[in-house]
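Amino Acid Chain and Its Fold in Token Form
===========================================
Purpose: to set a sequence beside its fold so the mapping can be learned.
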Amino acid sequence: MKLPSPVWGGVGGGGISYTSCLTPEPPPTPSPSPRGGGGQVTFSDSLSGKGNHFGISDCIWAMQSNCAHPIAPRGTGSLQASNVPATSKLGTLSAAIAALLLAVAPVHAQSFPTRQLTFVVPFAAGGPVDNVGRVFAEAMRRQLGAAVIVDNRPGAGGIVGSKAVASAKPDGYVMLIGSLGPLVIAPAAGAATVDADTQLSPIGLIAESPQILAASTTVKAETLREFIAFAKASGSALNYGSAGIGTVPHLSGEMLKAQAGIDLLHVPYRGTGAALPDLISGRNQVLFGDITSLLPMVESGRVRAYAITSVKRSELAPNVPTTAEAGMPDLVSRNWNGLLGPTGLPPAIVTRLTDAMRASLKDGDYLAAMRKQGATPVESSPEHLARYIAEERRRLAPIIKSIGLKLE
């Protein structure tokens, strides 16, 4: 039995029309449903020339009952086809139900979101990840036309919040503002964190944020090259501060130490802000930190900026050279944030979120707000973010292994 190709109802029409249901040919694959559609199917029977409408409940009723003509809706009695074999009738009906489900399913994806979304930031409020996450959430609110709230769930260097999203229902309403620490550094250092490959669905890279290498004004070196020469001639280890063990500033300091061949001692703090007083006083000689924390200190002359760890200069600090310009082209270090959800997200919802992210790149207010955070928004995709995370693992694994970093 052939179920002919349907003629789909237009926007808001909601119908699927079959011109015949009794032609003896194999059933074709129905074409996708357009936007709209209300879940009703129309069959025009060649015996009567009249259209018969039924929904899913009618299909189920017909299959459960051993009626003479299962295509006829309940109670109509309009068609009598007792000469049609029961297997043919059920085969036709099964194909009709499949077509109906194909027609109705995309409608739900197109309506996403229908309620408030939650973006989980796995760090405390007020930090770099939180600031970027809030700017991004506001941009997505404008693009999706639904409320988006930020839920701060700090703990274990971002692992607590990341695990919360990994175990959430995969419906697109609970998403993660992911970052380098819990998704790359923590697993490489042996921590019991989430596996971004198997427990999370990548949506796209949000933005990248380079670090500034700053020095105390007590150090008699005006440039990075002079500092390296000063460190080699000092005869003892110099101190570098960081925002904590296993953070991007920590690894940046170890990269500087290895690439420059100088002796540096790591002094960890609870955040960049906590490390600043000892940099200003000269207790620590250098510090890697985010732009928004260090730039005010640089502009006021309280600390000196040697370089920014990106391939291009920052619009926020156009007078600060890149590490390549300062003589160390391989000293590239950045924090980044990406949008991820629980594994198993429906493809249509992934596409909806990715499209909204791309559209936000044309939002001038969003771009300006990101620049104020020292972050550069990136055009991305699920595949791009997956490759990006894999490349970050490859890039940082050697330095993590070399220093024997272990995180609980």
Remarks:
- The radius of gyration is 30 Å.
- The longest strand covers residues 200-216.
- The domain at 113-408 is CATH 3.40.190.150 (D-Maltodextrin-Binding Protein; domain 2).
- The longest helix spans residues 86-111.
